[in-house]
Design a protein that fits this description.
The complex is a heterodimer of chains A (about 250) and B (about 425).
Chain A: E1 8-17, E2 20-30, E3 35-39, H1 46-54, E4 61-66, E5 69-70, H2 76-81, E6 84-87, H3 99-105, H4 113-117, H5 123-135, H6 151-163, E7 169-173, H7 181-194, E8 199-203, H8 207-213, E9 216-221, E10 224-229, H9 231-236, H10 238-246
Parallel strand pairs in A: 3-8, 3-9, 6-7, 7-8
Antiparallel strand pairs in A: 1-2, 1-4, 4-5, 9-10
Chain B: H1 3-9, H2 15-36, H3 39-64, H4 72-90, H5 107-111, H6 127-150, H7 156-176, H8 178-181, E1 192-193, E2 196-197, H9 201-227, H10 229-239, H11 241-245, H12 251-277, H13 287-300, H14 305-325, H15 330-344, H16 348-359, H17 377-398, H18 401-418
Antiparallel strand pairs in B: 1-2
Classes of the chains: A alpha/beta (about 250), B mainly alpha (about 425).
The structure holds adenosine-5'-diphosphate and magnesium ion (MG).
InterPro entries (chain A): AAA+_ATPase, ABC_AA/LPS_Transport, ABC_transporter-like_ATP-bd, ABC_transptr_urea_ATP-bd_UrtD, BCA_ABC_TP_C, P-loop_NTPase
Protein name (chain A): Urea ABC transporter ATP-binding protein UrtD
Keywords (chain A): ATP-binding, Cell membrane, Membrane, Nucleotide-binding, Transport
């Protein structure tokens, strides 16, 4: 458990739900500016890994170090504040607020009760909202109630809400689920742009999409790592082929 | 810019429509009612308006925060009792009470064989302390309940039920501790405040106006909270609590704060009740009054501050009229009213008003953005709990459990169908 140069060092991570090990002795390291994709069949434990990192689920054993800080002992909001952002599998936005308000409310100032009561919309906030809106291709929709966005646009909005916080580590759970082919391409571009100065973990099923974005791929199966490495290498791995075709 | 334009442009007041709504309410409370009815009725309206403090707090807590407390009577009662203790002590000077076996203590203590003033009554000899107590003790109590529940992530239906249980326990405690609290009769025969007779007509007028001003204070404070980032976060939390938590906010602190604020407002209402009505009793603390207050808010429109005030006035007017003619029917009527509101007008009076104002283009307002809160599905759930409680009560009254259960079922179904995407009203 020594210090490392990795942004994220997951070591011997285990969680068991009533004896069922959803994540089993997992070790994984994420580099600075790396875009890692987690793949694996349904129920492999991918979402659970993100839950463990962001504190939604408490681990049974092992350690998660983010910039050499142990995350397993922090509460959810402390983990976020230390620089970890997480997008949920189902788009999770505030439907009754406008796109602008969704982004503004995610701005990382005025996070306490009294801070939020005295929070002022400064030029800085305004600029940040517009910059992110441009990134996620929603500039024209800023004043629209976000419930009216398309499914794909909702996914982008949630990514935008995370970008407002400028996280060092961004974790996206199936960000292109329910998107059209064109939207998938746009999302691939978006991810390639936003991983310039941060590390990103993406969970994805669509192999075509994975090829476009992944620096490295980790294949999970029954809570364990089956294979890890560049896309071509993993795709040629016999164990991986067996899991994917054998099921 | 003229003052009018400035007011209309202000986000705080909610644009032109918001300013007009406030102006009309002010005219009704400060001019129309005092000029239109005699002092007996005005005093009655003043009493209703003390419940409006609770309803306004519920707009913040429930309408915007999605947290349904079925125990706001706790805080109304604590505020009311704090004020009553002060007034009771003033009414119990040794000369007036010289026929008692222990002169100088409240009459009910004497009847209960107490021979000295209990220690926790001592500070209520001071008016500044009493005012301080009205503002802080209920809020502190709310903090303790809120901390214990929200930090453990107890929410939704469980929160509602626990607040209800606390209201019940408190009212039982007050009734049981007769020597300290006056028991089931409450604290009666309150007369003066620092020598000023609160029972005269002129005092009643003054208290009515003071109450109105304080109510406007509560409304403005709520408007400020709603227009701040805090207000936006409340709506966000109601919709997607996890998203807020995983955006770096400690959600429980926000819930605790809004619960305390709503409690504090209720307490001010309670204290004004005691002053205007001249007594305080446990019948304003328990489950029934707490639920009634939720109904006032629902009828007015739980997302609308001004709607909550009208809702309170209207339901209480109905209660006065009906309970005079058909007292035994009132509970059923109120239950029916609540079910009707849930099924057909989830945004209450304010929602209906909003719909027609928009339809006919009254008070067209460019400044109003898409900020209006929507009735969320969590709201539907909470409606269902309430309906359940109400029909359970009706069932207890008639012992026809199956009828109540079927009403409950259909209501829940209908509520689920009719609620999504109905735009809220903030008028
Ligand atoms: N909180 C929980 N309690 C019990 N079982 C869980 C919990 N969370 C996940 N699981 C189980 O863990 C396994 C992995 O789930 P998940 O991480 O969601 O898989 P996926 O790789 O499809 O995202 C599944 O079998 C799921 O049922
Ligand atoms: Mg998953």
């Amino acid at each position: 458990m020594s210090n490392t140069d990795f942004v994220l060092a997951v070591e011997d991570l285990t969680v068991s739900f009533d004896g069922f090990k959803a994540v089993d002795n997992l070790t994984m390291y994420i580099d600075k500016n790396e875009l890692r994709v987690l793949v694996g069949p349904n129920g492999a434990g991918k979402t659970t890994v993100l839950d463990l990192i962001c504190g939604k689920t408490k681990s049974t054993g092992g350690s998660i170090k983010f910039n050499n800080t142990e995350l397993t002992k922090l509460s959810e909001h402390e983990i976020v504040r230390s620089g970890v952002g997480r997008k949920f599998q189902n788009p999770s936005i505030y439907e009754n607020l406008t796109v602008y308000q969704n982004l503004e409310v995610s701005y990382p100032k005025g996070r306490g009760v009294f801070g939020s009561l005295t929070f002022k919309r400064t030029q800085e906030v305004e600029d940040q909202v517009r910059r992110v809106a441009a990134d996620i291709m929603l500039t024209e929709f800023l004043d629209m109630e976000s419930a009216l966005l398309s499914h794909g646009q909702k996914q982008w909005l949630e990514i935008g809400m995370l970008l407002m916080q400028e996280p060092e580590l961004l974790m996206l759970d199936e960000p292109v689920a329910g998107m059209s082919a064109k939207e998938r391409d746009q999302t691939a571009d978006l991810l390639n742009r936003i991983c310039q100065n941060r590390s990103v973990i993406v969970i994805e099923h669509d192999m075509e999409f994975v090829k476009k974005i992944a620096h490295k791929v980790t294949v999970l199966h029954q809570g364990k790592i089956l294979a890890e490495g560049p896309m071509e290498k993993v795709q040629a791995d016999e164990k991986v082929i067996e899991v994917y075709l054998g099921h | 810019m003229t003052l009018w334009e400035k007011m209309c442009a202000s986000d705080l007041l909610g644009g032109k429509q918001g300013v007009i709504g406030l102006a009309v309410l002010a005219a009704v409370i400060f001019l129309v009612l005092p000029l239109g009815v005699d002092i007996f009725r005005l005093n009655l309206i003043g009493k209703y308006l003390t419940y409006a403090f609770v309803a306004v707090g519920l707009v913040l807590l429930w309408g915007h925060g999605g947290i349904l407390s079925l125990g706001q009577g706790i805080f109304f009662g604590l505020g009311g009792y704090a004020m009553a203790m002060f007034l009771k002590l003033e009414a119990s000077d040794p000369i007036t009470t010289k026929i008692q076996s222990t002169p100088g203590i409240p009459d009910f203590m004497d009847w209960n064989q107490l021979t000295a003033l209990p220690w926790f009554w001592e500070p209520f000899k001071s008016l500044p302390f009493t005012i301080f107590a009205v503002l802080t003790i209920p809020a502190l109590f709310a903090y303790i309940i809120g901390y214990a529940m929200f930090k453990r992530r107890v929410g939704g239906v469980y929160f509602s039920i626990i607040t209800q249980a606390v209201a019940l326990i408190l009212s039982i405690l007050i009734v049981g501790q007769q020597g300290y609290t006056g028991g089931v009769n409450g604290m009666t025969d309150l007369r003066t405040m620092l020598g000023w007779d609160i029972r005269t007509d002129s005092a009643k007028y003054i208290l009515y106006y003071a109450n109105g001003l304080l109510l406007f204070g509560a409304i403005f404070l709520s408007k400020y909270v709603m227009s701040s980032k805090f207000g936006m976060l409340l709506l966000a939390m109601r919709d997607k609590e996890e998203r807020v938590r995983f955006s770096g906010y400690d959600v429980s602190n926000f819930k605790i704060f809004i619960f305390c604020l709503a409690a504090m407002m209720s307490a001010v209402g309670g204290a004004m009740f005691t002053l205007q009505v001249g007594f305080m009793s446990p019948s304003f603390v328990g489950i029934v009054p707490s639920i009634e207050m939720v109904i006032f808010c629902a009828v007015g429109g739980r997302a609308s501050l001004i709607g909550a005030v009208y809702g309170t006035l209207l339901v209480n007017y109905g209660k006065t009229v009906f309970s005079e003619t058909y007292p035994e029917l009132w509970l059923f009527l109120m239950g029916g009213l609540f079910i009707a509101v849930v099924m057909f007008f989830p945004n209450g009076i304010a929602g209906i008003w909003d719909k027609y104002a928009t339809k006919y283009g009254w008070f067209k307002d460019k400044a109003v953005t898409a900020k209006k809160p929507e009735v969320s599905t969590t709201g539907v759930e909470t409606h269902a709990v309430l309906t359940e409680t109400l029909s359970a009560e009706a069932a207890a009254a008639t012992e026809s459990t199956d009828v109540a259960a079927s009403v409950k079922k259909t209501t829940r179904k209908k509520a689920a169908i009719s609620s999504p995407n109905i735009r809220g009203a903030e008028a």
